[in-house]
Amino acid sequence: DNLEKGHKGAVLGGKLIVGDLRDMDFVRSVFKNNNIESVIHFAAYIEVGESVADPLKYYNNNVVATLNLLTGMKEAGVDKIVFSSTAATYGEPENIPIQEEDKTFPTNPYGETKLAVEKALKWADRAYGIKHIILRYFNASGAHESGKIGEDHNPESHLVPLVIQVALGKRESIKIFGNDYNTPDGTCVRDYIHVSDLAQAHVLALKKLRNKGESDIYNLGNGKGFSVKEVIDVVRKITGHPIEAVDSPRRPGDPAVLVASSEKIKRELGWVPKMNDLEKIVETAWNWHKNNINGYNDK
Questions:
Q1: Domain range for 53
Q2: Which of 57, 120, 151, 291 has the fewest CB atoms within 10 Å of its CB?
Q3: Is 110 a catalytic residue?
Q4: Position 51 in a domain
């Protein structure tokens, strides 16, 4: 991790090597000095609005850095990778819930960069035998049930922690970007998945690759959609705080509805989400944030 967005305090029980994947010498040194047989690749910029404003920043970090990582893997003979992709690869979906074989038409550079990496992985498999599992996340949310690991972004861009910041008095209100979408209450609808369920899916994906499984793509969501207004209402209920919401213009690149079908990973890998209730997800987030008002406080 280059710790641009990450935190030393979030690394529990593992070895942290600080560096940047855009530095090819660093990448080579990591593979040379460590006994690595598989890779789980999370590193990326993820803010849709920022990607529209500064697309080259996203291509440089999300695509170029990943090509460096794949080059390092090829040179070191490492042939298994689990890749964090996104529902943003689908763009404005034709069908709900979204299935893995549905068309991919990203509506923003963030989604485009993730799709570009997916395509690079396909060709790296064919040319070099690097097997991959692509996990297309829907909205990762919540915190570890222990309360020791949670979300701490600067600036914050994820809905649940943003609303919680209002409850904690760290911001005056929450902006609702668009109230005229073709949804029941006019606000965007998203599929929220707890981070612990997300983590378990990565373990199962890696097991498949270690058992000589073929490359594949899986959605990761709960299959239920909640609107922005519904999420705000749930945070009000869990925290017991009034939360002021302010209607704002739409953000460019935001699809109206993104809800996953995760039947494929359930069927093939036996994945079962345990935190599939939005109130439980928000409760874990609230537990983290109220006890860590300044996050990891390490910047």
A1: 8-291
A2: 291
A3: yes
A4: yes
